[in-house]
Amino acid sequence: AYCQGEDLSIEFDSICLHSDTPGALDLAEATRLALDAAGIKVRAPR
């Protein structure tokens, strides 16, 4: 699905970021900050 400028409601168990993607570290940091800002708890897999 593609959405631009709209909020999406989704359920997920994991997020996969590939380290060979250009800017992967910046993407990981931005993702974590966005999750924290949204009040989404991040934890290690069980």
Automatic annotation (TrEMBL):
Supply the InterPro entries for this chain. Answer: Glyco_hydro/deAcase_b/a-brl, LamB/YcsF/PxpA-like
Q: Which domain of life is it from?
A: Bacteria
Q: Name one Pfam family in it.
A: LamB_YcsF
Q: How is this protein named in the record?
A: LamB/YcsF family protein
Q: Tell me one GO biological process term.
A: carbohydrate metabolic process
